[in-house]
Amino acid sequence: MTDLSAIVADIAAEMADAPDRGTPADYIPPLAAVDPKRFGMAVIEADGTCHLAGDTEESFSIQSVSKVFALTLALGAVGDQLWKRVGREPSGSAFNSIVQLESEHGIPRNPFINAGAIVVADILLGRYEPREALGELLRFVRAAAGEDGIFIDEAVAQAEQDTGFRNLALASYMRAFGNLHHDPHVTLGVYFHQCALAMSCRQLALAGRYLAAGGVNPTTGRNVVSAQRARRINALMLTCGHYDGSGEFAFRVGLPGKSGVGGGILAIAPGIASIAVWSPGLNERGNSQLGTLALERLVQRTGWSVFEPR
């Protein structure tokens, strides 16, 4: 029988000794200030059993991992109409690239690159004022995790606003094509605050459980999304969740996963576990260096890859 707690503890010990830890994101000052020695790993099984190691209770900015939760809410709001405004294909480009928008008439490749997530934020504004849209997102994530300690880090949101010129270019470009329905500054205000969601590894793994459980919140037994929608979100995480490193992540890890430049990764082993790792140092693609390595080693030792025979 697999001793998951021992595996998680061993991986955390290996990560503590890793010499190449990547480089924290330096273009958002609060992220650049995070200690690169931090590492946390949380594995929560289908029955709720938690396996924790490292800095699993320290809150960090989940950044683009939040796009998974925003997409879930937007699909609940407009259903498959969303795909008229956002594609479902890997981009093959950097997360903040503007290049494809020109030839593809302002339609972002997928909801996990910045342009696609900005459109998702714009869709959420179709139902609410900005403050209400953010309140709805915060309530959703807190309910999914069963934790009230999740919050929006205002200092990070402000830093993103102060440095987000490329995102403003993306939003303005899509507005010119008619694919943004609100003032770009208003939509970006929601997007920046969404990316500033802060929680711990344990809370992130808890929040992602509905994607491992066929759309059901295991604590309440209530459907968060349909089983089909959960499967499709997982498919997008597998193919698009790591930007232009998505193929490499699928090759090495073989799980649906979504990364963020805060160093977090949410990974899903469907029907088995929800997993969160955090290490602030990033690789050249903007994904957590040690987080990716830790997930690769977890899958090697458990056989959880979706490509493993069952």
Write structural notes for this entry.
- This protein has 310 residues and is of the alpha+beta class.
- Helices cover 46% and strands 11% of the residues.
- Strand 6 and strand 7 form a beta hairpin.
- The two termini are 16 Å apart.
Give average pLDDT, whole number.
95
The class by helix and strand makeup works out as alpha+beta
Biggest sheet: strand arrangement: 2-1-8-7-6
Tally of DSSP helical segments: 14
Shape annotation: globular
Distance between the termini: 16 Å
Helix content: 40-55%
Biggest sheet, open or closed, and with what strands and sense?
A: 5 strands, antiparallel
Order of helices and strands: HHEEEHHHHEHHHEHHHHEEEH
Rg, alpha carbons = 18 Å
- Total number of β-strand segments? 8
Estimated share of beta-strand residues: 5-15%
- Residue ranges: pLDDT <50 for 5 or more in a row? none
